[in-house]
Structure formats: C-alpha cells, structure tokens
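Re: weekly structure request thread

Next one in the queue (323 aa):
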Amino acid sequence: MRQMYGIIMQKMTSDIFRKHGVRTYGLVRASMAGSSSNPYVLYSDLYDHRQFVRALINSSFSGILWCPEVRDGKTPEDFVRRIQTVCFSPLAMLNAWASGFKPWSYPDVEGIIRKYINLRMQLLPYFYSAFARYYFEGIPPFRAIQLSANDDIDINVNAHLNEDAEIDDQYMAGDSLLIAPMFAGETTRKVYLPKGVWYDFDTGERYEGGTIIEIYVSLDKIPVFVKEGGIIPMMPALPHMPKAGEKVPLEIRYYGKTPGTFKLYDDDGETFAYEKGNYCWITLQVSIDEDGKCVGNVVNVEGDWEPGYSEYKWKYINQGMSE
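Done, posted below.
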C-alpha cells in the first residue's frame, strides 16, 4: 500500500502541472519501479553517505531515480564530500531545514562547494541528454557499473569484487562519465575501471581499464573518469537554466584519440511540446584526420526545435593536454 500510495500521489500532482501545460520535477518518499515514468526522485532520511550512494546505484536496476541529498554533514569535509556526490546525481538537493548546515556554514570550503555547484550547471546539457534517453529509451541516466560494463566484470579474477560480487561505491553518469565518490576520512580509494581507456575528467591523465587502480584524492576533487571517445557538452555556469529561445555558447570536451559521437538533446525545457515532436537531437562527432588530429563537427540536427546554442567550441583532451 505504501508503494501504491506513492504512485497515486505522483500521478495526482503531475496531472495538476500537466493541466497548466508546465512540467514538474519533484521528490517523493514512497515509490516503486512502476512509477519510473513519473517526474519524481525518491529520497529518504537515512544520513549515512555510503548508504546514499548505494541506494543511488541499486535504484537504477529498477529504473528509479534516487537523490543522495546533502544533509547532516557535520564537518566541512563531510559536507564537501556529500556536495560532490549530489552534484553527480539525478537531483542536486541540499536539505538543510533540520540540520541547519548550509554551504556558507563552512567558510574554509565554500570555494570547493561553489566549484561543484557551478560544475553541475555546466554539465546540464550532458545530463539533460542522458535524461532524454531515459525518457525515450528507458536507460537510467545514473546507473550501476554492472549495467554498463556488461561482461567486463569478472568476479573470479577481480579480488576487489569477491565480497558479495558487488561494486556499490561507484557508478556511471550517462554513457561516458564514471563517478567514484569519496567519503569523510578518506584520502585514497580504489576504483574499478571497465575495459578500455579512461581519462581523468580534470587533468586528462590516461588510465588503462579492465583493472583496479588506487588513487590519492584531495578534498577539492571527486574522482571522475571519462571513457575513451567520450564527448562532454558543457554550458556556462549560469545561476539558472536558459529560458526557451535564449542561446548560450557550448564548450564540447572530447577525451581520447579515437572517433566519438554524442547525441545532444534540446527542447524548450518547460512545456510538453516535446510530446508532439518539438525537440531536436544534435549529433556531435569527432573524427581523426590523416595527421592524427581530432576534428569536431556538428554533423546533423534532427527535429523541429531550434537548438539553444549560439556557438560550439571544441576542446580536445588527451594525456593531460588540451588542443
């Protein structure tokens, strides 16, 4: 009954918004796999950071969105680590009504917190496209490694996975970003990289996959790795989303030395016009020329919606270098 109540409540509230022709995106405390088509994120009042990350990962097996809310971060370090995680989740929510802890409660780390809030805004074109695939194809935008790595994971030879055959502290955000959260008290961690080549999101450092790496991580960093050939579209760190018809420049980061393609989604962001085809898919493509240099192009725009981007600026990242 608890789960059914959650679905009924979601339908009731979303129907109200639909009558006004405006989308919504909210929080619920009761849900189930049958509600995955509703625009809501599940959360709870569990406060353990590891439990939040585990719930985010496990929920993806049911196609449910989970919010690892920032709440009860009792130290500057804990607060930063929770902020870093929630900025790579379905909903970047700060729940401070009970604990009273806010980003400006810790002046010494306010700059780090601001950095990740801004990064969240910059990554919205990438995340929005991942959510579009969730709607059109049913692929969870944030999901367990097991849902992306396929047969890459071998528990018979990977000692890191022998216990319960689980990876419950790292996950995928979209197709190209691997997120490995840090927890308070940690300065190092192990990360399982699926087969292939991976790059550090910030530095471009190259890693061979199909193995476990151990890395040192400073407080101002959450380990984020980009799959070889990954294309990451990023907008300016605005204080709000651009309004329908407002155009912004797009920086497109490309990691690697092999051809890559990304389908960038766009619509008005507010109404249900997308249900009538008023949206577009922009194909971003990187090829390698005869001299081994990366060449990025917008090769196709499909759909009735005019893209909300004023320019496309390409940035090629490989081996810690950008071209």
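The chain has three domains: 2-123, 142-227, 230-322. The mean pLDDT is 89.
Next request, please.
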